[in-house]
């Protein structure tokens, strides 16, 4: 499992990790939304790399795990595994910098994957799962346990780093009044 820290990175892993007894395709070469003449978007390339990395993780899992037996619990195990490659300092409650977005000095708190990175990763893997033949209702990346874990990570990191993850409210235009129709005066009024 040492070869997986390229989640979210720019390196390419085009190794075919498909399993013969698996109804879903783990190889990134069967993208349903990209055409052969256009170059894939950055998002599509990242989604393919993430999908291949998750497939490699399943292949290296002990015992090896096929995609159709993968559950939300396995996705959580994968997310926790990825934490070791994180670059975001998450202060512990006993750290003097807990709740400070810009600490003035170094501390021994662990580096973790940022919530936003995990959230985006799950979104890409959720889409890739369905594009590679998975049924939406059986998508392990959309499992309730995964959503709850992401919410917990967001809340914990928000408190630890002193950063708010509130959704940005869309700016709304002030309600404009509909233009008044100028009706001609009734006949004989002038």
TrEMBL record:
Bias-annotated ranges (Low complexity): 8-37
ALOG domain: residues covered: 42-169
Keyword vocabulary terms for this entry: Developmental protein, DNA-binding, Nucleus, Transcription, Transcription regulation
Subcellular location: Nucleus
Biased composition (Pro residues): 175-190
Record's GO cellular component terms: nucleus
Any Gene Ontology biological process: response to light stimulus
MF-aspect GO terms: DNA binding
Region listing for Disordered, in residue ranges: 1-46, 160-190
Family as reported in the entry's similarity comment: Belongs to the plant homeotic and developmental regulators ALOG protein family.
Protein name: ALOG domain-containing protein
Native source species: Rhododendron simsii
């Amino acid at each position: 499992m040492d070869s997986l820290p390229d989640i979210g990175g720019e390196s390419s892993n085009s190794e075919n990790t498909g399993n013969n007894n698996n109804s879903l395709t783990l190889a990134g070469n069967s993208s349903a939304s990209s055409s052969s003449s256009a170059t894939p978007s950055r998002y599509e390339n990242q989604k393919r790399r993430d999908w291949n990395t998750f497939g490699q993780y399943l292949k290296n899992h002990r015992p090896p795990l096929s995609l159709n037996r993968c559950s939300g619990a396995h996705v959580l195990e994968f997310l926790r595994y990825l934490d070791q490659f994180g670059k975001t300092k998450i202060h512990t409650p006993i750290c003097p910098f807990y709740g400070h977005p810009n600490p003035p000095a170094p501390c021994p708190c662990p580096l973790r994957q940022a919530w936003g990175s995990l959230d985006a990763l799950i979104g890409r893997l959720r889409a890739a799962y369905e594009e590679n033949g998975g049924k939406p209702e059986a998508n392990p990346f959309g499992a309730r346990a995964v959503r709850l874990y992401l919410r917990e990570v967001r809340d914990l990191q928000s408190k630890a780093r002193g950063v708010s993850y509130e959704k940005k409210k869309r700016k709304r235009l002030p309600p404009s009044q509909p233009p008044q129709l100028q009706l001609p005066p009734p006949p004989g009024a002038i």
